[in-house]
User: What shape does this take?
Amino acid sequence: MTKNQTLLSWIEQMKQLVTPEQIVWIDGSEEQLNALRAEAESTGELLKLNEEKLPGCYLHRTAVNDVARVEHRTFICSKKEEDAGPTNNWMAPEKAYEMLYDIARGSYKGRTMYVIPYSMGPVGSPFSKIGIELTDSIYVVLNMNIMTRIGSKVLDSLGDSGDFVRGLHCKCNIDEEKRYICHFPEDNTIISVNSGYGGNVLLGKKCFALRIASYLGKTQGWMAEHMLILGLENPQGEVKYIAAAFPSACGKTNLAMLIPPEIYREQGYKVWCVGDDISWMRIGPDGRLWAVNPEYGFFGVAPGTNNKSNPNALASTRKDTIFTNVVNNLDNNTVWWEGLDKNPPKNALNWKGEKWDSASGEKGAHPNSRFTAPAKNCPCISPEFENPQGVPISAIVFGGRRAKTAPLVYQSRDWENGVFVGSIMASETTAAASGAVGVVRRDPMAMLPFCGYHMGDYFSHWLEMGEKLGDKAPKIFNVNWFRLDDDGNFIWPGFGDNMRVLNWIIDRCDGKVDAVETPIGYVPRAEEINLTGLDFELEELKAILEVDPALWRKEAEGIADFYGKFGDRLPARLREELDSLKSRLK
Ligand code: GTP
Ligand code: SPV
Ligand code: MN
Assistant: This one.
């Protein structure tokens, strides 16, 4: 399919290493994909679901020990340890290659090597980047087909260029003691062994589009961020774009596909989804920040997705979708998960494939169970989704899960203060990564697990981008949908009602509303968040907009500790921001 010598010789080298029985080039044709679907069905790797209710849909179960990203086994293998920084695991490249090649050696014996050419971003767009993933998993091929643009057209676009990201994935024995997800930013290379779970093996996603791309962005003057992109259309038909970074399983997919409350819909407001997880951003010829979603589908969290919380996500999964680790309803061969509805199936298998009774109290779907759905299935997919130039960003929003401390929304004082706000983000951990759930940790810009280089340098890069953008820089905000009352219930209704907050954000960008200054930034006057049609008291709203100086003084101590990690690679500007926050809190 190609005469590209750089590509062919790398594949030959990998072939000698992993020794497949055969090599299959993925051309992207429906014919080839259908044959792979049939093969995966025959081996049990995929289970075909009810063709009438869920046309083109499949269920897959991962190994029980392989259900989430493994941050403690994820490495940045830069030449110098200091370039990976204090927040990444590091391994010397020579040592990592040797170890990984030992694990990978002969691991495709009796198996097929699939060669997947894929493009992150529309094929041929100047914003797009090409990757080649080698894998021994049909599940990976079929997921990559949904999540990225794949096939011969990508090879045509690559031509004989050597500018592509090399990705080797080997399932091996799914041995968690030998599971490694390694990135070589200086070599444009990713190697993933002993896993079959999404974020560890769909190499275009977190590995390329964030870890490798963040490094490329730093060296080439653009940004790769863990952000959704949405367009908010007002009754006059003007669309303003917002990019928002929340940590894993903290609400990006939900916000990206939001359906506004009735009072907004009646007036003609609408939200368009450009992307739900990753944003590549550059300064355009007009000096503004322009964003593209490099992905082609959604790898979304299933639990909690329902017709009320996120009807657009649910609609996206009604055809041509792969479900991973959800419940299988045996009565009609469909799928179910906690929070889909209040009627768990009686005759069902849980995510492990065991007979399951919801009365047992055990969850049927894994908390990190997922759907892989084509973006074009989404009823609110933006008309700009395929625009090779992307969309201009008016506001950047950071956010996390905080039971207390962070108010519903606040605006930073300016770009530099906004970078500070992003850098001090903290959130309770979720099931998207292995390890404890519900522990508050600092997760700057929601990039802690995804930044491919030293995070101190990453903060500098943000500051430099702000200098270049000048007065055309997007305004920066922080939100928290997750404040809890004393009984542990969410106070803010969230989901579609987050529109009320987005509206204030856009009004602030347009200079249409005032705000109240607090030590951490500007919060809305409670009266200026529209509560019409919502059963929510103004007093409650005031309570979640409050900034408690005592809590924030404690927070400032935590920030100082966190900043201590970065030593002299922490930009002085951020230390000054912390000092001035402290003095405002006195
Ligand atoms: P990744 O795909 O891991 O990056 O996650 P994400 O950031 O896209 O998170 P997602 O939108 O899938 O939401 C994760 C969980 O948060 C789901 O269980 C949602 O139901 C819940 N959630 C999302 N938005 C809200 C909200 O506004 N309020 C509350 N209380 N929960 C929310
Ligand atoms: C996340 O964990 O942020 C995800 C899912 O979007 S994964 O692809 O596993 O990274
Ligand atoms: Mn994510």
Observations:
- Residues 69, 198-199, 205-206, 248, 277, 299, 432 surround sulfopyruvate (ligand 2) (CB under 6 Å).
- The chain has three domains: 5-44+70-220, 225-296+383-585, 298-377.
- Residues 242 and 395 are 5 Å apart (CA to CA).
- The longest helix spans residues 204-220.
